[in-house]
C-alpha cells in the first residue's frame, strides 16, 4: 500500500518539478533581460507601462530644421530682401533644405530650384472653399513649361513688379549663346538640362568673345550636386561628366565607366 | 491514505514554494503610488489644424520626413495631406499621392490602381485639403494592444514607441482607427508621429508646424489657458476625427467637413 502510493506520487511530482524549474528559469531570464526602469510610470497605470529611459531617447534627438531666426544673423541681406514680400511667410529651409548644423555640416545647403517646388502653391487649382483657389497660379503645362520659374521670378521678391527678363540680372539667356554656338544649344534642347542656363556651367558670358575670349567651364562634381543633391554618394570622388554628358543628360546617352584609376577626361 | 509528519511538512514546503515563485513575478503597487500617477500634470500637448488655411503645398510632409528620418521615397509618412473634391452630382473623391509630400500640383486625382481622375472645375461644389497626423489620443488604442509595453503615453500626453523594445507584431498598426501608424522601413519597428517630441521639449514648434507657411498647423499646451491653441479649442467651434471610437483624440480641426473620415 505505502509502496504503491510512493510510485503514484513520483509520476505526479516529476512533471511538477519540471514546470517549477521552467518557471524559475523564466523568472531568472526576466530578471536579467528586463531593464530596471521597466515598469509603471506616469501618466497612468493603463498607458504608462514602459522602459523609463525611452522618453529620453526621443527627447535628445538633434533637430534638423532650425527656423529662419537662425538664418538671420549671417544672411541678413537675404532676410531683409524677403521681408514684407508675399514669400516672407515661407521658411528659408522649405526651399534651401534643412540647416541641420550648417555651416559646419553641411557647409552649403542644396537649394531646390525646380519648377515643382514653386508649383506646390502656384499650380492653379480652381477650388472654391479652399485657400488654394485664392492663390495666384498658372497652368504649368502652358506657362513656359521648359523654363525654371526663377529665370523670370525672383523667389525673394516675387511680386510681378520685380519680374525680370533672364538678361536683366546680368545674365544672358541661352538665345544669346545660340547666335554662335547653335549646335551646342540645339543639342541641349529637349534634354532635361534644357532648363539650365549655359552660364550656370560655362561661367558669366559678360562681353565674351571679346572679354573674356574664352570662358572657364565648371566641370566639378560640386556643380552637379547643387541640383542633384541626392547623388553625393554615387560613385564618389569621380567627376560626374566621366559618365554623364551634361548636354545630353538623359541616361540613354550614358558613357561607359572607365576602369578604376583611369584619368577623368 | 495516511501521511507521516515528515511527508506533510515536505509537501507543505513544496506547495508554498511553488506558489511563491510566480507571486514574486508580480509587482505590488501601493495605492499612494497609483494616486501619484493620476496627479495633474501641467503640460498636455495638443494640435490644432485649420483646414481653411491649408493649400496643399505639402511642405509639412516634406519637413516631417526630413526632420524625423522617415525614408523620403518610401510610401509611408508620419503626417500626410488628403485632398477632397465634391462635385455637383453629389459624388465625392479623395486622394493623397505620396501623402502629399510633393504638394498638389495637378488637378488630376491620383486614385492608385484605378488610374487618374480629371474633374471639370465647373462641376466642383467644394474642394479642400485636410492635413492628418497622429491624434495623440487620451485613450490610445495602440497603447492598449501592445503586448510588450513598447508603446506608451508620456506624462505630457504623447504616444511614443520604444524602438529597442518593439517586437514588430503590428497590433498597434491594426488598432489605430486613424491609420497613423506604419512600419519604419529601416528600423522594422512601429513608427508614428511624436509631435516632434525632441523639438517641443526644446521650445521649438514641430517641424510640420514650422514649415507651414499659412499657419494651418499649430501645436500648443492644453493646460495653459493663455496658449492661443487652447483659446481656440476652448472658445471656438472645433471638431475631432472619429469621436465615436471613444479614443478622445487630441488633434482638433477647424473647418472639418462631414465627408472627412
Key features?
heterodimer, A: 265 residues, mainly alpha, two-stranded antiparallel sheet, 30% helix, elongated, B: 261 residues, alpha+beta, Alpha-Beta Plaits, three-stranded antiparallel beta sheet, 8 helices
Quick summary:
Chain A has helices spanning 2-33, 54-59, 76-82, 92-96, 115-122, 174-178, 182-188, 198-202, 221-224, and strands at residues 38-40, 49-51. The termini of chain A are far apart. Chain A is an all-alpha fold.
Can you walk through the features of this model?
The complex is a heterodimer of chains A (265) and B (261). Chain A has helices at residues 2-33, 54-59, 76-82, 92-96, 115-122, 174-178, 182-188, 198-202, 221-224, and strands at residues 38-40, 49-51. A two-stranded antiparallel sheet of chain A has the order 1-2. Chain A is mainly alpha-helical and 265 residues long. Chain A starts with a helix and ends in a 41-residue tail after the last helix. The model of chain A has no long low-confidence stretch (mean pLDDT 85). Chain A contains 9 helices and 2 strands. Among the domains of chain A are: 2-59, no CATH class; 64-164, no CATH class. Chain B contains 8 helices and 12 strands. Chain B has a domain at 45-136 and 194-254: 2-Layer Sandwich (Alpha-Beta Plaits). Chain B starts with a helix and ends in a 7-residue tail after the last strand. The model of chain B has no long low-confidence stretch (mean pLDDT 92). Chain B is of the alpha+beta class and 261 residues long. In chain B, strand 7 (151-153) and strand 8 form a beta hairpin. Chain B has a 3-stranded mixed β-sheet. Chain B has a 3-stranded antiparallel β-sheet with strand order 3-2-6, with no helix packed on it. The longest helix of chain B is centred in the N-terminal third of the chain and has 19 residues, at 5-23. Chain B has helices at 5-23, 31-38, 59-67, 141-145, 171-175, 197-200, 207-211, 228-235, and strands at 45-50, 80-87, 92-95, 109-110, 116-117, 124-132, 151-153, 159-161, 182-183, 190-191, 217-221, 251-254. At the A-B interface, helix 1, strand 1, strand 2, helix 2 and helix 5 of A face helix 1, helix 2, helix 3, strand 6 and strand 7 of B.
Amino acid at each position: 500500500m505505502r509502496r504503491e502510493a510512493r510510485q503514484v506520487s513520483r509520476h505526479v511530482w516529476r512533471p511538477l518539478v519540471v514546470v517549477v524549474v521552467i518557471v524559475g528559469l523564466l523568472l531568472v531570464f526576466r530578471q536579467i533581460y528586463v531593464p530596471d526602469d521597466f515598469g509603471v510610470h506616469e501618466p497612468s497605470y493603463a498607458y504608462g507601462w514602459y522602459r523609463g529611459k525611452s522618453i529620453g531617447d526621443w527627447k535628445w534627438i538633434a533637430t534638423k530644421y532650425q527656423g529662419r531666426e537662425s538664418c538671420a544673423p549671417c544672411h541678413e541681406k537675404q532676410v531683409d530682401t524677403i521681408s514684407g514680400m508675399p514669400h516672407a511667410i515661407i521658411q528659408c529651409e522649405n526651399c534651401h533644405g534643412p540647416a541641420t548644423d550648417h555651416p559646419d555640416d553641411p557647409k552649403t545647403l542644396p537649394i531646390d530650384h525646380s519648377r515643382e517646388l514653386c508649383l506646390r502653391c502656384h499650380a492653379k487649382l480652381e477650388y472654391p472653399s479652399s485657400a488654394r483657389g485664392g492663390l495666384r497660379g498658372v497652368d504649368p503645362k502652358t506657362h513656359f513649361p521648359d523654363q525654371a520659374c526663377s529665370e523670370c521670378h525672383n523667389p525673394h521678391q516675387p511680386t510681378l513688379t520685380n519680374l525680370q527678363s533672364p538678361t536683366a540680372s546680368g545674365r544672358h539667356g541661352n538665345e544669346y549663346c545660340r547666335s554662335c554656338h547653335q549646335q551646342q544649344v540645339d543639342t541641349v534642347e529637349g534634354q532635361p538640362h534644357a532648363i539650365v542656363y549655359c552660364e550656370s556651367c560655362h561661367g558669366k558670358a559678360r562681353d565674351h568673345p571679346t572679354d573674356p575670349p574664352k570662358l572657364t567651364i565648371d566641370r566639378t562634381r560640386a556643380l552637379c550636386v547643387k541640383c542633384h543633391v541626392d547623388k553625393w554618394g554615387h560613385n564618389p570622388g569621380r567627376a560626374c561628366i566621366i559618365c554623364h554628358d551634361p548636354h545630353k543628360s538623359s541616361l540613354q546617352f550614358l558613357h561607359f565607366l572607365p576602369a578604376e584609376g583611369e584619368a577623368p577626361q | 491514505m495516511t501521511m507521516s509528519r515528515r511527508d506533510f511538512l515536505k509537501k507543505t514546503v513544496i506547495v508554498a514554494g511553488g506558489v511563491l515563485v510566480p507571486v514574486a513575478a508580480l509587482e505590488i503597487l501601493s495605492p499612494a503610488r497609483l494616486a501619484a500617477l493620476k496627479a495633474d500634470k501641467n503640460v498636455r500637448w495638443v494640435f490644432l489644424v485649420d483646414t481653411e488655411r491649408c493649400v496643399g503645398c505639402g511642405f509639412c510632409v516634406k519637413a516631417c520626413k526630413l526632420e524625423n528620418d522617415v525614408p523620403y521615397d518610401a510610401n509611408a509618412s508620419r503626417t500626410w495631406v488628403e485632398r477632397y473634391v465634391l462635385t455637383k452630382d453629389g459624388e465625392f473623391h479623395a486622394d493623397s499621392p505620396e501623402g502629399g509630400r510633393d504638394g498638389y500640383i495637378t488637378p488630376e486625382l491620383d486614385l492608385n490602381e484605378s488610374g487618374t481622375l480629371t474633374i471639370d472645375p465647373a462641376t466642383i461644389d467644394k474642394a479642400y485639403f485636410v492635413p492628418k497626423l497622429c491624434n495623440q489620443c487620451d485613450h490610445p488604442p495602440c497603447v492598449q494592444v501592445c503586448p510588450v509595453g513598447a508603446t506608451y503615453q508620456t506624462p505630457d500626453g504623447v504616444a511614443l514607441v520604444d524602438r529597442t523594445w518593439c517586437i514588430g507584431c503590428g497590433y498597434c498598426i491594426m488598432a489605430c482607427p486613424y491609420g497613423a501608424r506604419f512600419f519604419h522601413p529601416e528600423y522594422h519597428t512601429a513608427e508614428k508621429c511624436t509631435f516632434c517630441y525632441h523639438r517641443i521639449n526644446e521650445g521649438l514648434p514641430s517641424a510640420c508646424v514650422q514649415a507651414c507657411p499659412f499657419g494651418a498647423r499649430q501645436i500648443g499646451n492644453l493646460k495653459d489657458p493663455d496658449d492661443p491653441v487652447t483659446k481656440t479649442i476652448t472658445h471656438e467651434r472645433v471638431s475631432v476625427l472619429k469621436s465615436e471610437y471613444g479614443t478622445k483624440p487630441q488633434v482638433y480641426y477647424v473647418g472639418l467637413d462631414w465627408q472627412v473620415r
